[in-house]
């Protein structure tokens, strides 16, 4: 089956996804649209793909699937429109800007057989998949600790911060989903704190540039998550899974930006500059999977309900940071 794939949103990740889609087997055409028509036309010309002036024209173009990479506040309407048109949809996280909006989308799509896949690309990364296999296969024994890290080399633009949702919803949510997915367990309680040592724009936006989180899982396992917008050594994303019989680390290779203090310990080679480079293979695998889901060839690996669970954890973290206390997930669950 040759598919005609629409894509809404031609920013940085949208352009990267469009470039990937164009090269995937089974994709006959890619059609772009954006509220910024000039940007959509320029991107389409650069990539040699089609362009639609608006969403109605995109659906009228007979697309078989839709990829949503636009601003967060547009996600609910685009997901619902795709589902109502009977078009399978892939949407970058989050589903919506808040829990109530996410629940509204979830209730709508649950009434339809049309699949909605949410973008948590770490589920498709070779290292994270190996960590999950090691845990579920029993080779680690029982797991006592997990340590997750997402450290950006530089902060996002200041004008992005007020609409980002904050460091837990924008950044940490990937770690929260990864911990749930790798372990197969649910988070029951969080304690989070944060600090601002960098640009005053974070404080002005009510956000923090660095955060530390302790998660308690439903079997008593402890997980720590470290987040920062100022890791000058390079982009550093890892998940360590520590068990009674062994351990495994996703994201540890010769490009991990860690410099050993030991004699002869060495330094990283060419650290990843950002998430698009670090997870390029995972993004491609994720989109290949989506096309298979859209074609009815496999089950949806990450639906809106998964995104909601990760969002609950992020919401509890923000409440914990602001109120300086441990917050049970049950307290924020609707």
Helix content: 25-40%
Q: Radius of gyration from the CA trace?
A: 20 Å
Characterize the main sheet: 7 strands, mixed
CATH architecture of the largest domain: 2-Layer Sandwich
Oligomer: single chain
Extract low-pLDDT stretches.
Answer: none
- The total strand number stands at 13
Per CATH, the class of the largest domain reads Alpha Beta
The CATH superfamily name of the largest domain is: Dihydrodipicolinate Reductase, domain 2
Q: What percentage of the residues does DSSP assign to strands (E)? A: 15-25%
The separation of the N and C termini measures 41 Å
Which topology of the largest domain does CATH recognise? Dihydrodipicolinate Reductase, domain 2
List the helices and strands and how they pair.
Elements: E1 3-8, H1 12-23, E2 27-33, H2 37-47, E3 50-51, H3 55-60, E4 65-68, H4 75-84, E5 89-92, H5 99-109, E6 116-119, H6 126-136, E7 143-151, H7 167-183, E8 187-195, H8 200-204, E9 210-217, E10 222-228, E11 236-243, E12 247-250, H9 275-278, H10 280-294, H11 304-323, E13 327-328
Descriptive notes:
With 334 residues, the chain is α/β, with parallel strands linked by helices. The chain has two domains: 3-122 and 283-302, Rossmann fold; 123-276 and 310-331, Dihydrodipicolinate Reductase, domain 2 (2-Layer Sandwich), CATH 3.30.360.10. Helix content is 37%, strand content 22%. The protein has eleven helices and 13 strands. The chain has a seven-stranded mixed β-sheet with strand order 12-11-7-10-9-8-13. Strands 3-2-1-4-5-6 form a six-stranded parallel β-sheet, sandwiched between helices. Helix 5 (99-109) links the parallel strand 5 (89-92) and strand 6 (116-119). Helix 4 packs parallel to helix 5 and helix 6 (126-136) crosses helix 7. The protein is globular, with a radius of gyration of 20 Å. The termini are far apart. The mean pLDDT is 96.
